[in-house]
Amino acid sequence: MEKNINSKLIIVGILLFIVIGISVGFATYSTTLTIRPGASYIANPDNFKVEFSSNNSVVKTDPIIPIVTPSNLEASNGLITNLAGSKTISGLSANFTAPGQKVEYVFYVANSGDLEAFLKNVYFKNVDGASSNKLCEAKIGTTNSLVNEACENITLNIKIGSDINTEKSISSIYGHNLVKGMFEKVIVTIEYKSGAVATDGDFTVFFGDIALDYSSTDKVN
Q1: CA separation for the pair 194, 198 (Å, rounded)
Q2: What is the β-pairing status of strands 34-35 and 74-75?
Q3: How far is CA 58 from the centre of its chain?
Q4: Each residue of 93-111: pLDDT tens digit?
Q5: What residues contact residue 107 under an 8 Å CB cut-off, 6+ apart?
Q6: Measured between alpha carbons, how far is 134 from 207 in angstroms, rounded to an integer?
Q7: Cβ distance 206 to 127 under 8 Å?
Q8: In the chain, what are the helix, strand and coil shares in percent, each to the nearest 5?
Q9: Are the CB atoms for 57 and 19 separated by under 8 Å?
Q10: I need a labelling partner for 51 at 20 to 30 A (CA). Which of 2, 119, 121, 188 fits?
Q11: H/E stretch holding 148
Q12: What is the pLDDT of residues 152-177, one digit of tens each?
């Protein structure tokens, strides 16, 4: 919440005028009146609105169709939810069968409010109960050592606009603005890199959430 208080001080000055006569003195008395006007502005949180969109010019919440490599790779659609207190994209997943495969999800962040928005932080959160943002679990019959090695070559990357492309958290971002009415492209890529070890069975990869932190100011954190 931001407050803008303008204070003005108006003083009616003291006027002291004394006339001393031969026999009678006359004095004019005065007093000081102080006026301290003040006003407060309480920002309306509804004026700041950053949300996800499946379209680059009008806010829409259609399913995000994944771009897969190879073309027969199975992947789920991304689902947008723009609620007042929670704006999320969920359902991003793929069923990899070999190294060299990847899936991309393209969507947009829209500034549909009245204030300029600034991206301040990108957080790669840890998987629940884990100490990192990625956790690989071998299924029954799959060799753990092979899964651990393969896990190193399965990556999650996010690209935001033209200047942010990362696989890890970034904090205290400065100068990345999103003006009123602007849409910015975001690409999330999950990849099983070429040349990675192949496992002898199935395994599951869990990734933690990615959080994008927007602010109405661009102050250095």
Answers
A1: 10
A2: unpaired
A3: 19
A4: 999 999 999 999 999 999 9
A5: 52, 53, 54, 64, 78, 80, 89, 185, 186
A6: 5
A7: yes
A8: 5, 40, 55
A9: no
A10: 2
A11: helix 144-151
A12: 999 999 999 999 999 999 999 999 99
**Single-letter amino acid, residue 81:** T
Tally of residues, the chain: 221
- Residues facing 155 on adjacent strands: 191
Q: Return the C-alpha torsion angle 141, 142, 143, 144, nearest 10.
A: -110
Say if CB 168 and CB 158 are below 8 A apart: no
Full-model pTM: 0.80
30-69 burial, b for 16+ CB within 10 Å, e for fewer? Answer: eeeeeeeeeeeeeeeeeebbbbbbbeeeebebeebebeee
Tracing tokens 């010019």 back to the chain, one arrives at 57
Q: Are 73 and 128 in contact (CB under 8 A)?
A: no
Give dist(CA 59, CA 76) in Å, integer.
21
Strands 17-20 and 25-28: antiparallel
